[in-house]
Amino acid sequence: MELKDRIHRWLAYEPPGYASRREFNLLWVWFGISVLYSFQFFLRLLSEYNGLFVYVYQMGYTKLVMREDAVMPPFGEVLGSGASGFAIGMWITVCFIGYRYLYHFRGSKSIYLMRRMKKRSLLWKNCLLVPLGEAAGFAVTGILLRLLYTGIYLLVTPGKCLTSVWWR
User: Fold this and answer.
1) Parent domain of 105
2) Crossing angle between the packed helical segments 20-38 and 121-156, to the nearest 10 degrees
3) For each of the chain's 168 residues, which pLDDT tens digit applies?
4) 13/130 Cα distance (integer angstroms)
C-alpha cells in the first residue's frame, strides 16, 4: 500500500460532516509561525557570538580579537523560547480533540449515529487519531529543529568559549 493511500485512510477518521480543511489551514499557519519564531535563535546566536570579540586598533588598522574572558552562554539561553511555538501547537491539537468530540453533538447530532455503530471505538478514533498525529508532527519537528540548532551552536561556538554545562 502506498504512503499516499495510507495517509488518506488515516485522514478518513473524521466526524461526519466535519470541515477539516479549516483545522489543517490553522495548523499550517501556526506551523509556519512556529518555524519563523524559532529563527530568533540565529539572531541571538549572532549577538552572543559577536559579544565574544572586541575590535582592537593596532598600527593603523582595526583588528577583531577574541576577548580573554569570552564565554558563550549555554545553549538553552541562546535558544530562549524559540521552540515554544511547537509546544503551543501541540496544545492546540489537544484542544481539537475536545472540539471534535463536541462537534458530534452539534447540527445533525451525529453522536447518535456514532453510538449505533458496531465499532464503538470509531467515535474515539474520529476524535483522537488525527489530532494526536498532528501533535506528533509538531513534537517531531520541534525536536529535529532543536537538534539542528544544537549542532549549529556547537559548530559556531569556539571550543574554548563553551562552558562545561553548555547544553542547559
Assistant:
1) 19-161
2) 20
3) 677 777 666 666 676 677 778 888 899 999 999 999 999 999 999 999 999 988 888 888 888 888 888 899 999 899 988 889 999 999 999 998 888 888 777 776 666 666 666 776 777 777 788 888 889 999 999 999 999 999 999 999 988 888 877 666
4) 7
Q: What is the distance between the terminal CA atoms of the chain, rounded to a whole angstrom?
A: 44
- The Cα–Cα gap between 140 and 157 comes to 26
Residue ranges of alpha helices (H) inside 39-120 are: 40-50, 75-79, 84-103, 110-116
Q: Which residue has the cell 471505538?
A: 121
Of the candidates 87, 37, 74, which has an alpha carbon nearest to the alpha carbon of residue 168? Answer: 74
Kindly state whether residue 31 falls inside one of the protein's structural domains: yes
Alpha-carbon dihedral sign for residues 61, 64, 66, 69: positive
Tally the domains of the chain.
1
Distance (Å, rounded) from C-alpha 141 to C-alpha 59?
50
Place of cell 549555554: 74
Query: 3-class SS at 104?
Result: coil
Distances (CA, A) of 118 to 9, 14, 108, 113, 128: 19, 17, 20, 10, 18
